[in-house]
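> example.struct
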């Protein structure tokens, strides 16, 4: 059953902003610059939503930054237009309101979903949450999805912000959960400093995790050593160069025999002084002794002219 709601002009002093229902407790207290600019230009398009507690008392459900922005832009205003939900509204309807209010501005981030499910779990069982809300927010109605997302709330606030902003993928965030706080914060700082995308984030995480385990150190201890700090803090290298050098050193230390074989192979090929149209590659991880030679010809007709010579070589 859809309960009644109405738009009313409310005295700001009667609004309690407890953040009990906030999907963004991890964000900085200041309103986003873009939101401030928008409200300054055209006002609030999506009014805050309040739950009526008594005739002259309301609890803020949605719109913390909208309310705060209005107070910053027009500090002399004592009233604001809000959408008021009646006092006896069922809790499930409040949860629907939270989800729909956020969905107006786009899909929920993984962290927003995690906080939403946190509030749901205070009042509902997993199966009911799954059936009622997962389809609305764009996920399959599977209980494990709720459990998986809820684990993200154990991440540090700065990591939650990065997941929310899309600077760290949900997959990487889930892998972070197996690390200590100091290790994941170390990697997080490097991710942001070097502006690593999802693939490179996963590669750095995997290489540093495996190497740290092999040498009996934490990831923070490993990446804080001089050989890596010199790369990360190098004054002349740009970010792509730092990334390439960091991966090279990690790879070399994790697989010293393979790296040594690779270096020897490249030196030998270089001495051959091959033409640009010719390249030589080895088997994966040097598992076999055979190599592949690739020749590039301008056209099929030219290949025909040389096919007998090629056949003699590979015969």
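> example.seq
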């Amino acid at each position: 059953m859809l309960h009644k709601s109405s738009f009313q002009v409310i005295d700001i002093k009667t609004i309690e902003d407890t953040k009990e229902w906030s999907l963004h407790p991890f964000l900085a207290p200041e309103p986003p610059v873009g939101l401030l600019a928008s409200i300054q230009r055209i006002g609030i398009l999506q009014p805050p939503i309040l739950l009526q507690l008594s005739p002259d008392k309301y609890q803020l459900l949605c719109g913390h930054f909208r309310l705060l922005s209005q107070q910053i832009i027009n500090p002399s205003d004592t009233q604001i237009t809000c959408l008021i939900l009646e006092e006896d509204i069922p809790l499930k309807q409040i949860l629907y309101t939270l989800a729909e209010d956020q969905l107006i501005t786009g899909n929920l981030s993984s962290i927003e979903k995690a906080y939403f499910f946190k509030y749901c779990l205070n009042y509902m069982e997993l199966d009911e949450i799954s059936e009622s809300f997962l389809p609305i927010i764009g996920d399959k109605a599977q209980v494990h999805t709720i459990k998986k997302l809820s684990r993200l709330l154990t991440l540090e606030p700065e990591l939650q912000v990065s997941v929310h902003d899309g600077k760290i993928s949900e997959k990487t965030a889930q892998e972070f959960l197996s690390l200590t706080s100091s290790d994941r914060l170390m990697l997080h700082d490097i991710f942001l400093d070097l502006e690593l995308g999802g693939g490179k984030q996963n590669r750095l995480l995997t290489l540093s995790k495996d190497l740290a385990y092999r040498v009996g150190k934490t990831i923070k201890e490993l990446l804080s050593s001089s050989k890596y700090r010199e790369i990360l803090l190098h004054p002349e290298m740009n970010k792509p160069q730092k990334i390439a050098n960091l991966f090279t050193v990690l790879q070399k230390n994790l697989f010293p025999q393979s790296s040594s074989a690779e270096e020897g192979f490249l030196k030998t090929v270089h001495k051959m002084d091959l033409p640009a149209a010719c390249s030589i590659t080895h088997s994966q991880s040097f598992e076999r002794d055979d190599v592949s030679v690739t020749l590039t010809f301008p056209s099929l007709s030219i290949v025909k002219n040389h096919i007998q010579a090629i056949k003699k070589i590979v015969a």
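> remarks
The radius of gyration is 29 Å.
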